[in-house]
């Protein structure tokens, strides 16, 4: 019985697509659809550098136009592997590991390349610090991340416990800049898509122990563990800020993205929930005053 290659690729673990020498997409498997949100019909025949995956690296470099591993593999025939962030159809950035290999004809001439990509799995390391509550009333219905009620439960537990090193835990508020303009200019349904995009970007790119919450409206919150100093905290937040800046949704052929202002603080001895949230809130508004899209740490 003859087995078609496409049938095999449709049933393997991981997203797979291949392109010709001009980087036009010739195949897109089912797992690629699941990971990216883009259907086969939407991408076949388009170029990989079109408005589809738009890989970026940790520095925000747009790899599709500068440093694309797939393009490099077509040029020199070398296999490559890299950790990048792809653009999901719903807007969020998804961390993936990609591997590229050349496609050759019977004359050993390179005629294209294949990219295989997997969602990055996170190592579970600090789950024993808190017990995850999974009741529906602790989940924000719109964004599907944890809600304010759950946040307050966790903060109360952290503050009350003696076996947690509170000096190494940080709290952060982040608020969308000028979100009212999005709702006014494009409507609340588009605003909801932006909120969902941000929530998914945060959830996909936090370390395993860290937690993201919707505080309310266009404001989110983070609890970050194992923070040794403010430099480490700032680097973590800079990475999240970059990924949010590089996330976008497409609306009527217009690319919509937002920025966010961050305010963070580490938990201090004898802090109450009010003390902690007040400092983070004040820092976040300092970021707004300084020009927005800024991180302020107290």
Q: What key phrases describe this protein's structure?
A:
298 residues, alpha+beta, Alpha-Beta Plaits, five-stranded antiparallel sheet, 13 strands
Summed up:
With 298 residues, the protein is of the alpha+beta class. 32% of the residues lie in helices and 26% in strands. Helix 6 (179-186) crosses helix 7 (188-205).
Q: Any chance you could write out the topology, listing elements then pairs?
A:
Layout: H1 5-9, E1 15-20, E2 25-28, H2 30-36, H3 40-43, H4 69-76, E3 80-87, E4 93-104, E5 110-119, E6 146-147, H5 148-160, E7 170-176, H6 179-186, H7 188-205, E8 211-216, E9 219-224, H8 230-245, E10 249-251, E11 254-256, E12 260-266, H9 273-289, E13 295-297
Parallel strand pairs: 6-8, 12-13
Antiparallel strand pairs: 1-2, 1-5, 3-4, 4-5, 7-9, 7-12, 8-9, 10-11
Helix pairs in contact: 6-7
Give a verbal description of the structure:
The protein has 298 residues and is an alpha+beta fold. The chain folds into two domains: 5-119, Beta-Lactamase, CATH 3.30.450; 127-297, 2-Layer Sandwich (Alpha-Beta Plaits). It has nine helices and 13 strands. The protein has helices spanning 5-9, 30-36, 40-43, 69-76, 148-160, 179-186, 188-205, 230-245, 273-289; strands at residues 15-20, 25-28, 80-87, 93-104, 110-119, 146-147, 170-176, 211-216, 219-224, 249-251, 254-256, 260-266, 295-297. The protein has a six-stranded mixed beta sheet with strand order 6-8-9-7-12-13. Strands 2-1-5-4-3 form a five-stranded antiparallel beta sheet. A two-stranded antiparallel sheet has the order 10-11. A hairpin with a 4-residue loop joins strand 1 (15-20) and strand 2. Helix 6 packs across helix 7 (188-205). 37% of the residues are buried. Residues 123-134 have low confidence and may be disordered.
């Amino acid at each position: 019985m003859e087995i078609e290659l496409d049938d095999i690729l449709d049933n393997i673990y991981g997203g797979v697509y291949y392109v010709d020498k001009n980087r036009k997409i010739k195949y897109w498997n089912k797992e690629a659809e699941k990971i990216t949100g883009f259907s086969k019909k939407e991408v076949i025949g388009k170029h990989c550098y079109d408005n589809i995956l738009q890989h970026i690296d940790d520095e925000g470099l747009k790899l599709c136009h500068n440093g694309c591993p797939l393009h490099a593999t077509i040029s020199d025939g070398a296999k490559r592997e890299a950790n990048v962030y792809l653009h999901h159809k719903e807007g969020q950035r998804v961390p993936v590991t990609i591997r590229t290999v050349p496609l050759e004809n019977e004359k050993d001439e390179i005629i294209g390349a294949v990219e295989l990509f997997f969602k990055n799995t996170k190592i579970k390391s600090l789950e024993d610090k808190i017990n995850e509550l999974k009741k529906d009333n602790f989940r924000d219905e719109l964004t599907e991340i944890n809600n304010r009620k759950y946040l307050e439960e966790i903060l109360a537990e952290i503050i009350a416990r003696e076996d947690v090193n509170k000096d190494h835990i940080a709290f952060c508020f982040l608020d969308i800049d000028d979100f009212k303009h999005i709702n006014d200019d494009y409507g609340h349904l588009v605003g909801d898509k932006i909120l969902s995009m941000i929530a998914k970007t945060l959830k996909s790119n936090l370390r395993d122990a860290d937690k993201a919450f919707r505080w309310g409206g266009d404001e989110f919150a983070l609890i970050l563990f194992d923070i040794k100093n403010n430099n480490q905290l700032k680097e973590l937040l800079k990475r999240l800020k970059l990924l949010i800046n590089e996330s976008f949704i497409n609306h009527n052929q217009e690319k919509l993205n937002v920025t966010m202002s961050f305010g963070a603080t580490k938990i201090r001895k004898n802090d109450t929930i009010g003390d902690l949230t007040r400092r983070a809130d004040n820092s976040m508004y300092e970021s707004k005053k300084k020009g927005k899209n800024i991180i302020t740490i107290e």
